[in-house]
Amino acid sequence: MADDDAIIRGTPLDEAHWVGPLTLPSFLHDVTTRHAEREALVFDDPLREGATVRWTYADLAREARRVTKALLAASLAKGARVGILMSNRPEAVAAFFGATAAGAVVIPMSTFSTPAELAHLISHSDTAVLLIQSRMRQRDFVADVVALCPEAGAAPADGEPAAVWSPAFPSLRRVVALGLDAPAGSVVPWEAFLEAGNPVGDDLARALGASIHPSDEGLIIYSSGTTSLPKGVLHNHRAPTLQFWNQAHNFGRHEESRLWTALPMFWTAGLCTAMGATLAAGGCWVMQEVFDPGQALALIARERITEAYALPHQTAAMEEHPDWAGADLSSLRSVYGTMAFARHPTVTNPDPTWRFPVGYGLSETCANVSSHLSTAPLEEQRASAGPLLPGNELRVVDPDTGRSLGPGENGELAVKGPTLMEHYVKVSREECFDEQGFFHTGDAGFYDEQGNLHWTGRRTEMIKTGMANVSPSELEVTMRACRPVKLARVIGMPDPRLGQVVVMCVTVKEGESTSEEEIKAFLRERVAAYKVPKRVLFFEEGEIPMTSSATKVRDPELLALVEAKLAEQPSA
After folding, report:
1. What is d(CA 467, CA 450) in angstroms, rounded to the nearest whole number?
2. Which stretches of the chain score pLDDT less than 50?
3. Global model pTM greater than 0.90
4. What CATH fold (topology level) applies to the domain 4-12+357-460?
């Protein structure tokens, strides 16, 4: 098959009638003008002793403009890098849009970062201005930054600007902290920073924002890893804004949508699917700084949430919480099928046409490449990751020969399209893309005759048992429907006869019980016999080693634990 014949394409981008302006400043201007008096953001602020903060779209526009003017007053040059180390909070959204309107490339930084990881983010991204919050729960971010960069803790000389000059971070010039009442060395309080921008005219700020083009660099997302330092993914302005519009459309959001989520803005799910897509629809984002199941239930009830956007383990934690049965969740509309919210006794009026839109994406594409609509029938949602989004292209490549594969042939997914990254930070484009401009994802999958994408797992994680390939991800996703199981992780262990055998590591929910044979029986009804694990090992809560964000398993450490358990518990 000729390579061009093997490329499948989404509909032309110009047919996506729901897409609006494609720079971050023009996006914000559009939504805040159309929805000025509507509520945009709600947050119970720990830095204000839990007081509820409510911003309208007009408030968001005003506060973002203040950030723009403050950065211009600090002589920020177009293209300079601005790091944002903040949790989900209104000021983080204002900082995000305000910095990009000043011409900056914005870097949402993980609040889960250890000090060493934070040092890597600041240094590797060439951050010039760092906007942080002073503390979050037990973390003191000002102390962390000063410990990494003692120059930031040194008081400026009388009459001198609060500049930072650090050989360890040669690009860093200014650190600003929300929640400080007075300067901490050269770390400037948030309000003082904003007030310094007052002399800058609004006309200048508007003109700079209007001068930005969709092709201008605007965003760096750092992808989390389990065994290496995160990679910086550089995007232009079109990538996140197009995702905002697309996902508002795919999720069926509208002006009356009230979304709750604790997913952070340094992940594409929090940035694009939660924050951006909700604002694109004119809805309201009810923010939670750090996930807590009891607080989440209280927010959903109090704020009359219509869509709760949570990871599976977060939903499970809410269902297991003592407040679950008594919570008033009757406002929820965007629920479906057998999800926990659909089972709640107060959820009696869900939207019968809505289902969570299944899709496929990655940080390198700023979220989704393919997706179903929320109105797609359940059988279609279960069958694939949906058609390509407008403007996207897909090849499936034989990883051994480089040959392009046809419908139904499993290989490595290679993608290209309007939200594909410019390149990795400090990596040339030639190292990121093939000669046709496709990014090879490292994911395995195929496309069908209808042009739907099917993801079958990480190519590098495929377990080769006998002559068959087994996808750990397929089994892990299947186990989400096994009620007693809280966490399942599948790994391949060496075997002299088969090459590898499939081993499943399981943590059981509190108050539940199951056995190895029950797990195997559950899977035999749902997957091919050769995919059923040879062994199922049980681990106590917290025993499976996770990353600091508690979203990924540390496989090398888990491998050592599995080896020890297998030695203690040889198969019969």
Report:
1. 29
2. 1-2, 225-227, 572
3. no
4. Luciferase; domain 3 (2.30.38)
